[in-house]
Amino acid sequence: MDHDDAPLRLDLKGLKCPLPALHTRRALARVAPGTVILVDCTDPMAAIDIPHLARQDGHTLESEARQDSVLSFRIRKGETASG
């Protein structure tokens, strides 16, 4: 693995629905296919919204986790996903 391909991290803690999903979608639109984005947010709706947008837009939700009030997602941009 190339170490120059560090994941893009989005700190969206404190933002309310629909902003975490919108920021995630915009970030995915700006990166190359195969890029990993790590998203941290605190809005409980993100547990539904972010996995949904990843599936809808053709990306891979590689993992999701919760620690206290922080939801974390690891998303890989799809090869044929549109921006």
UniProtKB/TrEMBL annotation:
It comes from the Bacteria. Coiled coil: none annotated. SUPFAM superfamilies: SirA-like. Residues 10-34 form the UPF0033 domain. Gene3D superfamilies: TusA-like domain (3.30.110.40). Belongs to the sulfur carrier protein TusA family. This is tRNA 2-thiouridine synthesizing protein A. It comes from Ancylobacter aquaticus.
